[in-house]
Amino acid sequence: MPYIGNNIRAADDYRLIDDISSSFNGSTTSFALQISGSTPVPFPKSPQQCLISVNGVIQEPDPTGSSGFNLVGTNIVFSSAPTNGHAFFGIVYATADYLNAGGTFPAGSTGSPSITFTTDQDTGLYRKGSGSIGFVSNSTEIANVDSNGITATEFIGGGANITGIAAGNIASGTIATARIPTLNQNTTGTAAIATTVTVADESSDSTCFPLFATAATGDLAPKSGSNLTFNSAQGILTATQFSGNGSTLTNLNASNIASGTIDSARVPTLNQDTTGTAAIATTITVADESSDTGCNVLFATSASGNLGAKTGSNLTFNSSTGLLTATGFSGNLTGTLQTAAQGNVTSLGTLTGLNVSGDATFTGDNYNVVWDKSSDRFEFADNAAATFGDGVDLTILHNGSHSVITNNTGTLFSLSDNVIFKNNANNETIATFVANSGIELYFNNVKKFESTVRGVEITGNATGPISSLSDGSTITVDFGTSCNFTVTLGGNRTFGDPDNTASSVGSSGSIFIVQDGTGSRTASFHADYKFPGGTAPTLSTAANAIDRLDYIVRGNNDVHCVVTLDVK
Description:
mainly beta; extended
């Protein structure tokens, strides 16, 4: 029946999603989105491009995943698991050759552009970098658009619609003389024409010098210089150089041409009738390019006489494509070499393999790396670094004085069940680290420290610094900074709440409490300091007397103390 509205959409504007209801079990929420048994290409960018019905109820497309459904990877993900036996129906809109509104595309490459047609995967557009878009045809970039304008390998056409080109931007090439307008006295511009020029009379002065003026207008003075003269009596024009097409020059003697090279276009065509000292073969027959595009270069068996063809077909030339093919080249190649990868051979492009039979030197601006074949090793010069990771995460180098390993991200792991550090002469052990055994530290090749199943064993004395505490009305001991402390009382003091007891459980040491020159200084202690009988001791009162408080941190806010008074 008739209806009002847009035409019914074509079948290619949407595709049916494969039925997934057989996998509904009341617990699974994620299902592969497939069309005709495979993941659609291109894949929908957002859930709004899909219509999903479960058991006859249209599901809300929700990119947050909190309700309805969302697209995650190549899967449909429901916020609630569909129940076994529920029906499924789904379609994807615009599945072929579409652009996702507000979406982004990967950078791409010439071989695989970001934006293509499904039937032409090597032709399209791709993002080369920030602010740069490339146009690709058959895996070859033909144009680029960036902030500088449009760059193309070639512009084709008469250029009738190209306007606004500034003459100052013509940086190379030569304008054909036919394109330059003829100048005459009536031509206007910034260059004015002198009103009067007086030259010497040829009848009285046979040698005439062209007069060059010092300015373009006004009272003109001659400009010095004598590089161009003309003898009117002899008809000789003398100059250091001539420039122009020479169309009116006649009676030139070719034997007087002493230097330079005549343009090949000015050399007459040679034929079998041309005579000279160079002998000419009687007959040379080559293939007609119009019928045989694969032409083989003919090598003769000798330089003169009746010439026979030298056998071999390792060098061919296709005139229609301009392709010269040979099994190898010997000698120096000059000029511009073109490959499929580079306009000039500034790099080797992509190699499937590289075999270097001798030494190889990689030269940078400042530092070199050499592959030394004789020693089978890479040799890095001072400050030439070996780097690992996408962001130079790990660097190994020798700076001329020291060897440096720098880790810029994460953790530096050394994975081994047995690690031994020795001196450069390999006759002294410095340290050993053995899995499930322990750590050993050495001094002058003698073991001083060893970790055991019971703890640690120390050979010799374990020493540490005695840190000075700041004197004040309240004295705070930070057990995280040292084990032994000393403080001289300048008045009656209070030992306040100690710091870092929780992180220092098990540590022990001494606090030396010294009377100043006056003496009779008293001290009280925070409740965290625990003394025998629960009572803090009374300090010695004599001037310069020393009391020693020995402690062990038993727990957070729990420091057990014993005081030895008047230590002599």
